[in-house]
Design goal:
Chain lengths: 447, 249
């Protein structure tokens, strides 16, 4: 069997095998972590990089997209100038005080980060892995979620950077925590970051993940965030992945587990850049919890952005909302796959899923695939998906009132995307997201 | 002043305007009446620059300048305004935001300074009051969930703010009850000005009791088939279009 698989390995897969053998000894972690890595890598090796033949990857052929596998990024060298650059690369969000945690090539850099408030503990992944505490390793591996996903297995095998954020039970963290991920300007590399946000019972926190890429080369990123929301805890989460060079690949996984009466609200803004796969698994383990996954993707050129969600209602009386908007220009491809699974015991589940897209170009493609798998009889679940063009009559109406065409179109598109950004709780963050979308739109007008 | 000379226009290969000529002088209110399907709305779209219509002959001059090569926004900046027969709903954009963007876009393209927010607010509030448009409507998404009459009032409010030199009102009376008709007509009449001309498209004579026209044109099959003074409207009301429509055939 191994012989067969090996013969079929792509160049990138061969490289990954060699890279794992090379890097394995220097990747962080005590013995149980090493075993976890080895098992994950074996799982990857037998599955190979995902292709269209894997159902969950039907519209994204990562194996084809990855011609090569880049070496794992080494730990960044101490760079005093980074402190200044940071303010320029990731300017403060207006009207929002945050506690900043800075990661460079996935590695947590304490010297660049703010001191965390009372009740919040931050640990570099390497440090946490070195201790190898069993409960921690279990939480980090989010058992039962994303199983069989080869890209996630690669992340587990190679996880080299990341940060562990623990919020103590009952703590209401006033300032949002802002994770800023930078890339250093070294030669082409791969970043495998794995982070964990553990929110204790009744605690409240907002996490904003903001990424900036200054790399002049293509990048391969594989990022995973595990969010564990204990009973009655509330988590707001916003993710703004970096815009990578075309031909880059990026798999960004989010695994969220919700306890009873917990609430989790997550928003992702995708602004294109190579191939990006946003995959989210959310599971309701306790009753009366609320989870919302929302997002907006604005794509152009040959951007390929795949949003794939799996929502598992295990416990009864929970509410899930999925709400995504996509704007596609140029020759871009957008994918929305959402699957809501309601287990036999998950009675009184209330689920609603929507994905709406606007095509601005004849050469853009949107694939919309919402799915429900319901095994309980007393539930209310619905979904809707649309792909449309900008309404010409609306554009004409606005133009006839004096708005130049690009302005009229931008106004309508902004209104379209706003319906998704409106789901973000914090007003300054909403304004920030809207400004990024505005930048994207103004570049379109200029083209 | 607007001069339309021997205009021919079609959509999807279907000829709808067939050699139409019409002049509306500064300060003049011209009415166009005609049966359904005679091409009145099409004419309003061709004048205001809607994409998809092919002008196969003739010209449209606004104060001596041919506007046919301009897009809708450029024409609007030159002073063309169309009050739509069916105003569009713009979800997610508040009426206030929309009005401000339009006003400032037009000012910008004419090289004028943008209005300050207080100055803009003052104008909108004054205009809204005159037309009986409640303030809370200005904070709602434009035309979304507005009644037919509210939409028409909003069209006239936009017209009053944009101060066009040539305004087309396409069946602005449809969907209005008598009270609304009076308010809207007063709004239009208040804008009558020696430098501004109007083309009032209507189906019924009723509107012309309120907005009294200087001239009345009868349109049929994409042509003006009869022109007269305001009395012509009464004649049409009494006898129907039959007599005139025959002439075009
Ligand atoms: N987009 C279109 N494609 C084809 N025919 C059209 C289109 N729009 C209007 N027409 C036709 O053109 C004629 C004139 O329509 P319209 O200008 O709306 O008339 P009116 O406003 O006088 O009722 C009608 O026969 C109508 O069916
Ligand atoms: Mg009409």
């Amino acid at each position: 069997m191994l012989g067969d698989v090996k013969a079929a390995h792509s160049a990138a897969e061969e490289k990954l095998v060699a890279e794992f053998a090379r890097a394995r000894g220097s990747l962080p972690g005590a013995a149980p972590v090493g075993a976890l890595r080895d098992a994950a890598f074996e799982a990857f090796k037998s599955a190979g990089l995902p292709t269209r033949r894997v159902e969950a990857w039907h519209y994204t052929d990562l194996r084809m997209a990855m011609r090569d596998a880049l070496p794992v990024a080494p730990a960044p060298k101490a760079d005093a100038s980074l402190k200044q650059k940071l303010e320029k690369l990731a300017p403060r969000i207006a009207d929002l005080e945050t506690t900043r945690l800075v990661l460079v090539d996935g590695y947590f850099v304490a010297e660049l980060s703010d001191v965390t408030p009372k009740g919040v503990t931050v640990t570099a992944l390497s440090e946490a892995l070195a201790k190898g505490d069993a409960a921690f390793v279990e939480a980090l591996s989010a058992p039962g979620m994303g199983q069989g996903d080869a890209a996630l297995a690669l992340n587990t095998a190679f996880m080299q950077g990341g940060v562990i954020i623990d919020v103590a039970a009952g703590t209401h963290v006033a300032q949002p925590i802002e994770m800023i991920a930078l890339s250093s300007e070294m030669s082409a590399h791969a970043v495998y970051a794995r982070s964990l946000l553990r929110v204790g019972k009744g605690a409240q926190v907002t996490l904003i993940e903001r990424e900036v890429s200054t790399a002049s080369q293509i990048e391969q990123r594989n990022h995973a965030l595990v969010v564990s929301v204990a009973d009655e805890a509330q988590v707001e989460h916003v993710f703004v992945p970096a815009i990578l060079k075309s031909a880059s690949t990026y798999v960004a996984s989010l695994l969220a587990i919700l306890g009873a009466k917990a609430s989790f609200n997550s928003f992702t803004l995708v602004q294109g850049g190579g191939l990006l796969r946003r995959q989210i698994h959310m599971r309701f383990d306790g009753e009366h919890a609320k989870g919302q996954l929302a997002g907006a993707s604005v794509l152009r050129n040959k951007d390929h952005a795949d949003t794939t969600l799996v929502v598992q209602h295990v416990a009864a009386h929970c509410q899930s909302r999925e709400y995504f908007k996509t704007v596609l220009d140029g020759e871009s491809t957008g994918i929305y796959q959402g699957k809501v699974i309601v287990a036999p015991g998950a009675q009184k589940t209330d689920g609603a899923m929507k994905s709406h897209a606007i095509l601005l170009s004849d050469d853009a493609t949107m694939n919309n695939k919402p799915e429900l798998e319901i095994f309980a009889d007393d539930v209310v679940c619905g979904h809707g998906a649309t792909v449309a063009q900008l309404d010409e009559d609306q554009v004409f109406y606005a133009m006839a009132r004096g708005l130049p065409k690009p302005v009229a179109e931008s106004m309508l598109l902004e209104a379209f995307v706003d319906e998704a950004t409106d789901r973000v709780e914090s007003e300054p963050v909403r304004v920030y997201l809207t400004s990024l979308i505005g930048q994207w739109l103004s570049q379109r007008g200029a083209a | 002043m607007i001069e339309i000379r021997n205009l021919h226009a079609e959509i999807d290969g279907k000829k709808i305007i067939n050699g139409l000529s019409l002049t509306v002088n500064d300060g003049e209110v011209a009415a166009i009446m005609g049966p359904n399907g005679s091409g009145k709305s099409t004419l309003s779209y061709v004048i205001s620059g809607r994409a998809g219509y092919e002008v196969t002959g003739g010209e449209i001059l606004l104060n001596g300048e041919n506007i046919l090569e301009m897009n809708a926004a450029e024409r609007a900046a030159k002073g063309v305004f169309l009050a739509f027969q069916y105003p569009l709903e713009i979800p997610g954009v508040t009426t206030m935001t929309f009005l401000k963007a339009c006003l400032n876009a037009q000012r910008k393209s004419r090289g004028e300074a943008e209005l300050t927010t207080p100055d803009f607010m003052k104008r909108v509030k004054a205009g809204a009051e005159k037309l009986g448009v409640p303030q809370d409507m200005l904070r709602r998404a434009l035309n979304v969930g507005f009644s037919g009459g509210e939409k028409k009032r909003m069209e006239v409010l936009q017209m009053s703010l944009l101060e066009p030199t040539f305004a087309i009102l396409d069946e602005t009376d449809s969907g209005l009850d008598i009270d609304a008709l009076r308010i809207v007509s007063e709004g239009v009449n208040a804008l009558r000005d020696p430098k501004r001309s109007f083309l009032v498209i209507t189906h019924y004579q009723r509107l012309l009791d309120y907005i009294v026209p200087d001239t009345v044109h009868v349109m049929s099959k994409g042509q003006i088939v009869k022109t007269g003074a305001k009395e012509l409207a009464l004649e049409l009301e009494a006898n129907g279009y039959r007599d005139f429509v025959g002439e075009a055939a």
